[in-house]
Design brief:
With about 210 residues, the protein is mainly alpha-helical. About 55% of the residues lie in helices and about 10% in strands.
Length: about 210
C-alpha cells in the first residue's frame, strides 16, 4: 500500500493501478471497500478473515444482536507484517490524522452560534473556555469526522450537544477506519513464527525436532 498524497478536498488516492480512491464523505461500506482495495491481497485476506460470530441475548432471553470478533493470524510473514505497518502508517498519518486545533475551535464556535444553549447563555469568556474544553476532548479525531458529526447534529437537533454526544458521533464516523487500523496494527505486531500462514507449522522447527529424536 503506497503512501497517498492528499488531493482536492478530502479525497485520498490510495494507489494506482488499480485506482482506489478513499473519500470520507462516502458511506462506510464504500470507504471500507476503497481501503481494502489499497491493500495487498494477502493483507486483504487477513483483515477480512479470522472472524467469529456470537449471538447475544438480553436477560429475558430475546435475541439482541450478532457480535463479530476478529482474531489476527497466528503466523505472519515478515513481508506481510511490513506491508501492514506501512498501510497502518498511511491510514494514521493521512486519514486519521488529528484535526488542527485552530480549525476545530472555529468549527465548534460556529456550531455554538447555530444551536442555542440548553440553559442561560454563558459569559463570552466562559464560552471560550468551554470551547477550549471541547477542542481538547475532540482533538483526537480527524477533521472530516468532526465535520461530519457537526453536520449531522446541526441538521437533526435543536439544542447544543454535549461533549459525550459529539464524541459518540465522531466514534461512529471513524469506526470503519479505526477497525481496519487496529487489525493492521495487530497483524504488524505478530512475530514471524514460520513459513506457513495461520494455523500452519514451522517446517524448520519440525525438522529440528525430528533430527533431535533420531
Amino acid at each position: 500500500m503506497q503512501r497517498p498524497s492528499l488531493v482536492t478536498g478530502n479525497v485520498v488516492p490510495l494507489h494506482t493501478p488499480p485506482l482506489a480512491v478513499y473519500d470520507p464523505t462516502q458511506p462506510p461500506s464504500q470507504r471500507h471497500a476503497a481501503l481494502l482495495g489499497g491493500l495487498p491481497e494477502t493483507l486483504q485476506a487477513m483483515v477480512t478473515g479470522g472472524i467469529t460470530q456470537r449471538a447475544c441475548f438480553d436477560e429475558a432471553g430475546s435475541f439482541t444482536e450478532l457480535r463479530e470478533t476478529w482474531f489476527p493470524p497466528k503466523v505472519v510473514e515478515p513481508a506481510d507484517a511490513n506491508a501492514a505497518a506501512m498501510a497502518l502508517a498511511t491510514i494514521e498519518h493521512e486519514i486519521l490524522a488529528p484535526v488542527d486545533p485552530g480549525w476545530l475551535l472555529a468549527r465548534l464556535l460556529a456550531l455554538f452560534a447555530h444551536c442555542p444553549p440548553r440553559s442561560n447563555p454563558l459569559d463570552p469568556a466562559v464560552e471560550r473556555m468551554v470551547a477550549s474544553d471541547w477542542a481538547e476532548d475532540l482533538g483526537e479525531y480527524p477533521q472530516w469526522a468532526v465535520d461530519q458529526a457537526v453536520r449531522i447534529w446541526r441538521r437533526t437537533k435543536k439544542w447544543r450537544p454535549t461533549i459525550m454526544e459529539m464524541r459518540a458521533l465522531c466514534d461512529e464516523a471513524v469506526a470503519t477506519e479505526w477497525t481496519l487500523a487496529e487489525r493492521l496494527r495487530q497483524i504488524a505486531a505478530v512475530k514471524p513464527g514460520g513459513t506457513g500462514r495461520e494455523g500452519g507449522r514451522d517446517v524448520r522447527a519440525l525438522a529440528g525436532r525430528a533430527i533431535r529424536s533420531m
